[in-house]
Amino acid sequence: MKATLLKNTHDLPLSEPAPVAVPVGEPVPHTRVHSVERTDQVETGVWECSPGRFRRQIVEQEFCHFTHGSCTFTPDGGEPIEIKAGDALLLPANSLGVWDVKETLRKTYVIISR
């Protein structure tokens, strides 16, 4: 397996905006992404989201490093986690909850499907 390099993630071109799958109220946030799916059940990439609230639907373990913006993630049954540019977060598998994006958010991420 060769290394996956994402160069210049601050300015990496992303996909066209698409609405989130499960918005919570208005405005409906839109996401853009550049992802690399590998054959070893690992996905990595850059993800960006406009302000708004939505439910997290990814059930796999995810590590992310936030490069722009700010938000709050409130896991189901847990306390809110305040996140801003420069922070990193590891979400264990089945960490469902609500994202509240305050400023357009950009992160690099790794999703592990094992």
**What gyration radius follows from the Cα positions, in whole Å?**
14 Å
Taking all residues together, what is the mean pLDDT? 95
Per DSSP E runs of 2 or more residues, the count of β-strands stands at 8
Percent of residues in helices: under 10%
Structural class given helices, strands, pairing? mainly beta
Largest sheet, described in full?
A: 8 strands, antiparallel
Low-confidence stretches: none
* Beta content: over 45%
> Total helix count?
0
First-residue to last-residue Cα separation: 17 Å
Order of helices and strands: EEEEEEEE
Shape: globular
Pfam families: Cupin_3
InterPro entries: RmlC-like_jellyroll, RmlC_Cupin_sf, UGlyAH_Cupin_dom
Domain (S)-ureidoglycine aminohydrolase cupin: 37-109
Protein name: Cupin domain-containing protein
Which descriptors would you attach to this protein?
Cupin domain-containing protein; mainly beta; UGlyAH_Cupin_dom; 8-stranded antiparallel sheet; 114 residues; RmlC_Cupin_sf; RmlC-like_jellyroll
Question: In a nutshell, what does this entry contain?
Answer:
The protein is mostly beta strands and 114 residues long. It has no helices and eight strands.
Structure description:
- This is Cupin domain-containing protein.
- The chain has 114 residues and is mainly beta.
- Helices cover 0% and strands 54% of the residues.
- The chain is built from no helices and eight strands.
- Strands 1, 2, 3, 4, 5, 6, 7 and 8 form an eight-stranded antiparallel β-sheet that branches.
- A hairpin with a 4-residue loop joins strand 2 (30-37) and strand 3 (42-49).
- The protein is globular and about 40 Å long.
- It starts with 17 loop residues before the first strand and ends with a strand.
- The model has no long low-confidence stretch (mean pLDDT 95).
